[in-house]
Task: inverse folding
């Protein structure tokens, strides 16, 4: 479960803020968040995963207050819009990064995630040899390697063409079910929202509206 309680945050030097945001996303729910460009959707995800600190309010994940915890302590998987793959690391190293940060090595998990996402044949490739769809799957595998309960996705399909996007929607849906994830997915695509979303949210003028 994701619960935000009266979260407020003002962007330094910017013209927008998040104001008293309260929302609850039940366990194992696929929620989609829409809103105008620049309204603070990415900032809200970064607050959730610990990359930004709110000015006030609480973040509760599975009945645990994580507001002041480090990102690695929150059991959250995060796929940013630019995917943030490491240029000099092969795919197996990308996927294993979250494990490495926790002092673990689990090659079996890396191989299993690669198989789940259909990228086993890419494990020894560098990112600059991957297509947009392949990079997206690698970023998803890396996020899942931390075995999170919550998955945050920031426009993960925006760089894909229409045919690849349809296939990626099916992958996201099956991953959410298989890994029993609570998902918050930011998108500008109404078709993505309709295909994936069980809970539809909109960020408007710093506030969350349930659609």
Result:
């Amino acid at each position: 479960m994701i619960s935000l309680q009266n979260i407020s945050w003002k962007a330094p030097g910017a013209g927008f803020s998040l104001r008293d945001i309260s929302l609850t996303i039940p366990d194992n729910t696929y929620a989609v968040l829409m809103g105008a460009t620049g309204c603070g959707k990415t900032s809200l995800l970064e607050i959730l995963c610990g990359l930004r600190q709110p000015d006030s309010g609480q973040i509760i994940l599975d009945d645990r207050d994580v507001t002041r915890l480090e990102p690695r302590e929150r059991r959250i998987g995060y796929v940013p819009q630019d995917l943030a793959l490491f240029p000099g690391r092969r795919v197996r190293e990308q996927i294993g990064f979250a494990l490495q940060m926790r002092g673990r090595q689990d090659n079996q998990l890396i191989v299993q995630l690669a198989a789940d996402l259909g990228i086993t044949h890419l494990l020894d490739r560098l990112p600059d040899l991957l297509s947009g769809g392949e990079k997206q799957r690698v970023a998803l595998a890396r996020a899942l390697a931390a075995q999170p309960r919550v998955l945050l996705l920031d426009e993960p399909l925006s760089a894909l063409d229409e045919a690849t996007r349809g296939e990626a929607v099916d992958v996201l849906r099956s991953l959410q079910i298989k890994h029993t994830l609570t998902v918050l997915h930011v998108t500008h695509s109404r078709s993505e929202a309709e295909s994936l979303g069980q809970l539809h949210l909109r960020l408007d003028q710093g506030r969350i509206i349930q659609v």
